[in-house]
Fold these 2 entries.
Entry 1:
Amino acid sequence: MSTLPNLRRTTLDSNNRRLDILYAHTETLRSWVQLVVVMLASCDFDSTLRQKFGLQVLQLILPRLEQSYANDISNATILAQLGRLILQKPRSTSADLDMTNEKFGQLFRIGLAGIQAPSAPVILRESLSQTCHQYLYGIIRVADASSARRYALQNVISMGDRLFEILCDDAYGGEGTHRTSALLLLEAFVALANQEKSKYVVEALTRLNFIHVIVNNIKDIPSELQGTDGSGE
């Protein structure tokens, strides 16, 4: 008769230890991210060395970010914010351009996947929407980024209507910067598709009855995304 209470106590102890380990892991990751942020902001790197360091960090966190969508959403939020910070740093032409384009392209793809992850909270979707918008902003206004634009559009198309459903819901019902982030990303999709002469994005938004919202908000698109023809001027 005493076996069952002992078993329950053992199970409870095991669960508590597991929660303690997960908490410790998250706190360790948070501290590591803070250290990286301080190094990026404060260390006396030249621009090339700073970018190489950022790319090494990105190479380390990208697979973990993708995996965390399914098994640790709190860690996903921490890693997503770090990825966005690295993307925002100025890019040096003397660094390995192919590696830069590859890693930032992977960050964009993984960001799109995270936006539509089943358990993604608002804070994660907002951070990833900002990251994806920042990436598109960079490649739309650069004349020699045609391969990156094609890659980006292929990834948007591969995500299907589910991605647009989530972003449209966020743009309709979100609040503050969350709503703005979703709307700006949708507008960037439109700009990207127009530049690549693709009807996919407009057709997807039309199916969701969202095209009128894009039209009404077109005046809010940053000037760099309006009327761009890929000339980089």
Entry 2:
Amino acid sequence: MRPARDAELENEVYENESFRGQDLSGLRTTHCTFSACDFTLALLNASEHLGSDFANSIFESANLFGAHFAECRLVGATFAGATLTGLGVGGGDWSYVLLRGHDLAGLDLQHLRLREADLSETNLTDADLRGADLTRARLHNATLAGADLRDAIVEGVNLAAARISQAHLDLAGAVQLARSLGAVMD
């Protein structure tokens, strides 16, 4: 079945499909696979996704206003120019994702896997990143003012490249920040 506005899909598989410019508003997916699919300019506002896989998919200039992803896999997905206002994320694996320059202020990103994600120039002000895996994520010029990074994995992250004022850090995060700033831990 080809997805359409307000469709409900379960266990469907799509590979290298183009949904370019389609109105998929209100789409609900459960355990579906969209491998290397193109959602450029698609309307996915108010869509809901549970345990679905969007690995290596392209969401360039797509509208994801109010979309929610719970325990989804978006490894290698690209969101250049996408509208992410009101985005909801409940865990999952977003490793290698391109979110450069997006406004993710205040989002709950707890326990989200963001390994090697490009978060450069992203606004993460007041974002909840507790328990998130940020291993080797790129945070160049990202704003983390007031962000909660307690229990986050920040191995290999250059925290000095980000703006971190008033961020909440646990001991491991504070040590990583100190190392990023050139401190030697004795």
